[in-house]
Write a structure and sequence with these properties.
The chain is built from three helices and twelve strands, in the order E-E-H-E-E-E-E-H-E-E-H-E-E-E-E. With 191 residues, the chain is α+β, with helices and mostly antiparallel strands. Strands 1, 2, 3, 4, 5, 6, 7, 8, 9, 10, 11 and 12 form a twelve-stranded antiparallel sheet that branches. The model is unreliable at 1-11 (pLDDT under 50).
Amino acid sequence: MTADPTPATPATAPAAPDGPAGTLIPGYSSPGARPVPWSTVRRVLESAEISWISTVRPDGRPHVTPLMTVVADGRLHVTTGPQERKARNLAQNPHVVLTTGTNAYVDALDVVVEGSAERVTEEAALLRLAERWRCKYGDDWAFTVRDGSFHHGDGGEASVFAVRPDVVFAYERTAEHAAMRWVLDGALPPG
């Protein structure tokens, strides 16, 4: 059996003026690695064009697929067609993992968000989110809001889910490697 390199009591990095205190995980970080600032992690989450969502099938097998995300109201938001596998998975198990970053080994930062997805159906919230999607991804992603869902000009319907973050991990690979963990209360802090 391989030993877990995470010590029982990892060193807590002091809170930066821009966000919450995170925990630098020494077992996965270079000796003397500097903590990753929360503002850097938040910027990656806000600017990511593609993230990967992991959900759980009813039989317990994982399901992973790429999608687009929008950050608003302290949460990450995702869409899915109501009959898609991820929508059916979320109907039975709201626990998700969202990941984003890069496939590069050098000068890279990957972010992992563990949380629970909740369906967004309130019209005012959906209207705000539809505008965020259009602003971030362009007019090809312009939605109208009707009956608690997004609707696209081609007739497609999308359910919207807000991911309440419980834990965020960041893995930075520069001259040093730094692994960080933030335990959150269901909202992404400003940054």
